[in-house]
Design goal:
The protein has 76 residues and is α+β, with helices and mostly antiparallel strands. Helices cover 41% and strands 13% of the residues. The relative contact order is 0.21.
């Protein structure tokens, strides 16, 4: 499978939520700010970043909190 190329700029206006489990949202913001060429995440117009410091499997270690974050994101 080759590299996917996204061309429709409307994709950047779709609300998104990032749940950061293995790194903090501050680290993510720092990485996004350091990129000379911003990636797709940095170009989103409505992106909510949420910390849930659980490691790789939040659905097993903190399922209630994860479910609530997902439900809140779906309702916004």
């Amino acid at each position: 499978m080759g590299k996917q190329v996204l061309t429709n700029p409307a994709r950047r206006s779709v609300p998104a939520t990032v749940i950061a489990c293995e790194y903090s949202t501050q680290q993510l913001r720092d990485w996004m700010a350091q990129d000379e060429e911003p990636g797709e995440l940095a170009l989103l117009e409505d992106c909510e970043l949420i910390d849930l410091p659980t490691g790789h499997w939040p659905q097993f270690t903190r399922p209630v909190e994860l479910g609530q974050i997902i439900a809140d994101a779906a309702s916004r």
